[in-house]
Prior knowledge:
Blueprint: E1 3-7, E2 10-13, E3 18-25, E4 31-37, E5 44-50, E6 56-58, E7 66-71, E8 76-81, E9 90-97, E10 110-111, E11 115-120
Parallel strand pairs: 2-11
Antiparallel strand pairs: 1-3, 3-8, 4-5, 4-9, 5-6, 7-8, 9-10, 9-11
Amino acid sequence: QVQLVESGGGLVQAGGSLRLSCAASGRTFNTMGWFRQAPGKEREFVTAQTWNSANTYYAGSVKGRFTISRHVAKNMMYLQMNSLKPEDSAAYYCAASSKAMTYRQSEYDYWGQGTQVTVSS
């Protein structure tokens, strides 16, 4: 049974940092990524990385501030978020895909339950 479990969300002031974790179980995946959804908005792509970390892709809004990483042996994925802004506030979702690299939500097969990040101004 495949499970993705996020942790690490919380409340932080603008300019601060948070580190999200995603624990995957059941199998390994070619690509793992992070998406986010703010209230009243559609879920959007944040970042993704292939299993060997050879390919990484970031949304323009987070590039230079967020860093994705994976620990393949532990089947873990992380999202280090620095210089957080109020507009980064959202529920953050971990997702896994069998594709080589994709930012399309429809191509992700498994999703976590989400963890809330709130950035105060």
